[in-house]
Amino acid sequence: MKTHLVRTHRSVEEFPKEDHLAWKIAEVATDSVEVTDATSDMIVNRIIDNAAVAAASLVRRPVVNARAQAQSHPYTPGSTVFGISGTFSPEWAAWANGVAVRELDFHDTFLAAEYSHPGDNIPPILAVAQHAGRDGKDLIRGLATGYEIQIDLVRAICLHEHKIDHVAHLGPSAAAGIGTLLGLGTETVYQAIGQALHLTTATRQSRKGEISSWKAYAPALAGKVAVEAVDRAMRGEGAPSPIWEGEDGVIAWLLGGPDKEYHVPLPGSGEAKRAILDSYTKEHSAEYQSQAPIDLARRMRARVGDLDQIASIVLHTSHHTHVVIGTGSGDPQKFDPTASRETLDHSVMYIFAVALQDGTWHHEHSYAPERAQRPDTIELWNKISTREDPEWTRRYHSTDPDEKAFGARAEITLKSGEVIVDELAVADAHPLGARPFARDQYVAKFRTLAEGVIEPSEQDRFLDAAQRTAELKAGELDQLTFTVSEDVLARAPKVAKGLF
Q: In what residue span(s) does the MmgE/PrpD N-terminal domain sit (predicted)?
């Protein structure tokens, strides 16, 4: 990996295009290096993972609305949309599938200086691959780039400390991945990256306070914007430049300011794109920093015994966990039993309470209003707080994979005065966890979430196609979706008519 110094440059400074971060990223995207077998295999796992969570969210209102918008834009050749037959304009297919994938917050993750769900790259890149008639190897190359660029930006550039949403790294990564997929030139990819970044910088209010369905829509919009940015760049349209380093650019005014320096690692020329191997998926449908606390609660419940005897619970954890999903956020909504699913998903206090009571976690039942409003749950929930521990913060930011951790130490104080303590650094499903996810686990997750949604024969067909992604020929990428019966679609709530 080569590390690039990125800082603001005044307009009067000499700053050649070839030194711009967007150009460096475009060079990575246009490097025709082969994808390693390990990376290719993991890409297949994540294609399966995305489809699994899309199946589970298929009849939820935000997904239904996004799908209806896409259905208003049929197109040939076009791209597929989860759950239905037909083809649609690729940017709208990317939009609909992006919402379906993100709605339950249940797919892959990478955490470093910033947060990310790099699987958000798959809907836009796959949609363009289908529309453009590319083959499976092209798709894998494009996805390897999308994952690489997003993860490398996440390693180096913190957005949330400046209250900028993490999808600002997704627009550029998806644009770069589409550039690789289509074999575009460096100049074209450079312009698309600049446009995509300029149009996807938004505040983090989408993940603060009373969290709405826009939490799922925001990354889908970034993917849609990336598709449109590539289209314009291919037609010869330009972008703000230099987008990160300009005097009025992203760093100067949205991030660390004109004196801030960032050190962004990117693969060197001829170096394989392996970043996807550093990411990890979720066993539980909850914000990633609550994955280990769920497993920890399940492990501790037998030692605690009678939960009514609990006086208080303190979760000692990282700064990120404390201020984003913990009591350090200052969000009273995180203790509101009538809060939205999206808000409960971002309350580690709620999540730990339910996991401690139930000994399990379910993507629907654990968030049901009747579950959140149980009096005994509310009582336990309000006994839980978080506290930042510098050691957990240090481990969160560690670059040593054996030391990097996203967990917590739980101190459960009983009314008797007894204190029960345990800790867990990484989730059981993490590559270094008790039960790491491999192909069998990804397939099992798909089967579980597809049950009652996708017919068994259609499940078999999809899984066979997904595991043969590298062998799929031009025109065969439409196999990387699934359809469901009209009876399943009829379970969806009635939604209002929009403009389309």
A: 20-262
What size, in residues, is the chain?
A: 500
Alpha carbons 283 and 278: distance in angstroms, whole number: 17
CATH 3.30.1330.120, domain 288-424, yes or no: yes
Q: b or e along 281-319 (b: 16 or more beta carbons within 10 Å of the residue's beta carbon)?
A: bbbbbbbbbbbbbbbbbbbbbeebeebeebeebbbbbbb
In angstroms, the CA 117 to CA 451 distance is 24
SS3 483: strand
- Report the alpha-carbon distance of residue 99 to residue 216 in Å, rounded: 5
Q: Could you give the CA distance from residue 483 to residue 46 in angstroms, rounded to a whole number?
A: 19
Mean pLDDT value of segment 287-314: 96
The owner of tokens 């050649």 is: 16
- Looking at residue 212, its pLDDT comes to 85
pLDDT in tens, 56-74: 999 999 999 999 999 999 9
Helices vs. strands in the chain: H and E counts, helices first: 20, 8
What is the rounded radius of gyration, in angstroms, for the C-alpha atoms of the chain?
22
Does position 86 have pLDDT exceeding 90, yes or no? yes
CATH architecture assigned to 2-278:
Orthogonal Bundle (1.10)
Query: 237 near 191, Cβ under 8 Å?
Result: yes
Q: How is residue 491 written in tokens? A: 């379970």
Bridge partner residues of 424 (DSSP): 408
Q: Which two tokens stand for residue 226?
A: 């990336």
Domain edges within the chain:
2-278, 288-424
Task: Map tokens 């749950």 to a residue.
Answer: 377
pTM of the predicted model, to two decimals?
Answer: 0.92
